[in-house]
């Protein structure tokens, strides 16, 4: 069976974009793939984290997986730092990857901004760790959003260079799995910006632990425009807020934007928003309630993370041993 690896960064306040862009897809993939899902806490510390908050955020990622329907018996759920093979392989990949490759990574430029000289070395090199995350398990497929495609291409470059340098076929050239509607969910207050936990306005995002009332309030206040919904999705191009809400509806209903517009063409937002609200509350209400229950039962979440770490380490151990022997290390 093909193997999936993916992770979500434990940065707190997981939101609708995290769910529709990643976590929801993880659930369906369990049917056809061997799935390994983690909280990428080593990536999180590329910028400073308050330690106790980080521990809480790791549990929040695990709770989101579980509440959304990831089965911890069928899939593996763990925290990245609990399997040392990630860090070991990342160093080897640091010695395989080229500086020029890293300089092309647009996400570092975006995150470091004008203070790139003050950014951590970890933030600069983390695409190498991301490659190690995937290849520690010889994963064959990775579900990615549009903004991660460049990192997956780098993973393929590193795998290919390692294989060429050592005359082996150690690593597979991992394939992306890119999903349909609303993989990029935008702010409810500004349709030109991605939904983000760092936005100062709580009304810009729906978090996974929002109550049913909170979800309804935020969608009621979501920015729209004065025009009715069009018949053709192409006519949403210059209407970012409308396009975002239609995209969210399409993703929640598992249909295309065209299907949504077939039903709601000509409708004002006074009609469309309540329908979207009902759909969102129906899907997210139970997830938020289960996440809250899990966050109040740390022992249960920690036990699942521990079991997942042991199972992940058992897969990684022979792979990292093979890599060390290939490189020329003496393996006891």
From TrEMBL:
GO terms for molecular function: ligase activity. L-tryptophan binds at residue 133. Keywords: Aminoacyl-tRNA synthetase, ATP-binding, Cytoplasm, Ligase, Nucleotide-binding, Protein biosynthesis. It is found in: Cytoplasm. It catalyses: tRNA(Trp) + L-tryptophan + ATP = L-tryptophyl-tRNA(Trp) + AMP + diphosphate + H(+). InterPro entries: aa-tRNA-synth_I_CS (IPR001412), aa-tRNA-synth_Ic (IPR002305), Rossmann-like_a/b/a_fold (IPR014729), Trp-tRNA-ligase (IPR002306), Trp-tRNA-ligase_bac-type (IPR024109), Trp-tRNA_synthetase (IPR050203). Its EC number is 6.1.1.2. A motif ('HIGH' region) lies at residues 10-18. Coiled coil: none annotated. The keyword Aminoacyl-tRNA synthetase applies. PROSITE patterns: AA_TRNA_LIGASE_I. It holds the Pfam family tRNA-synt_1b. ATP binds at residues 9-11, 17-18, 145-147, 185, 194-198. The keyword Cytoplasm applies. A motif ('KMSKS' region) lies at residues 194-198. Homodimer. Belongs to the class-I aminoacyl-tRNA synthetase family. Catalyzes the attachment of tryptophan to tRNA(Trp). This is Tryptophan--tRNA ligase. It comes from Sneathiella chinensis.
